[in-house]
Design a protein that fits this description.
Elements lengths: L7 H14 L2 H23 L8 H18 L8 H20 L4 H21 L5 H8 L3 H14 L9 E3 L5 E3 L12 H19 L3 H12 L4 H8 L3 H19 L3 H4 L2
Antiparallel strand pairs: 1-2
Helix pairs in contact: 1-2, 2-3, 2-4, 3-4, 5-6, 5-7, 5-11, 6-7, 7-11, 8-11, 9-11, 10-11
Length: 264
Amino acid sequence: MVETNLKAIELKDLWRRYKDDGDPRARERLVLAYAPLVKYVAGRMASGLPAHVEEADLISYGLLGLISAIERFEPERQIRFETFAVTRIKGSIIDELRSLDWVPRSVRSKAKEIERANAKLEHKLQRAPTDQEMAKALGTTIEGFHESLVRISNSSVVALDELWTVSDSSGDQVSLLDTIQDPTSVDPAQEMDLTDMKDRLADAIARLPEREKLVIALYYYENLTLREIGEVLSVTESRVSQLHTKAVLRLKSRLQGDPLTESV
């Protein structure tokens, strides 16, 4: 993506001039070179947000994350800058959206209620509950349950990517993959945590209903949009959004330390 604008050797020289010499012009050129990465991330996030959230605003929030990533990146760690920067760009956008507090409290409360109901039913049934079972547990109709999923998906900035993140010493959200200091000398405790998270996430995804599992695979691994996934599954984009929201809520209830799910 970036190397179409600047050759790799030019980027390497810019990094050297900025990190070794503190050249402000090199920093500015790095921001411009990697700006398309911000637009890409903002575009992906915008597809799951309400229409009143402007993509241009997301890009401006993401640029702050990009600048932070450039300032903190250590080229000698031998990891791709794009990998390092994406999490910080997303984190910057999410932090800004949350600070605006545009998500209604009732929607947040309903999302938590669905997570708790899903966890209890999974513990009881030893499988993923159906929509009918979820609706009954929530004391609503199937239509009401689906409407709740739509409201949550239209206001949620939580994605599967966040389940892979931890807070660094500054309080920023960074990817677990970015916390390895030396590729030849991995901290054992950190490696164990990362392996455990991968195993738990893989197990949680494997236990999803087939359609939700497919949506997760197409969205996060094949990078298809919700509209494109809808074409693959022959359903509406709204239905894909519901499936994605259900899958993420299920995964959150399994991975975020719910005592009911720890014993499953």
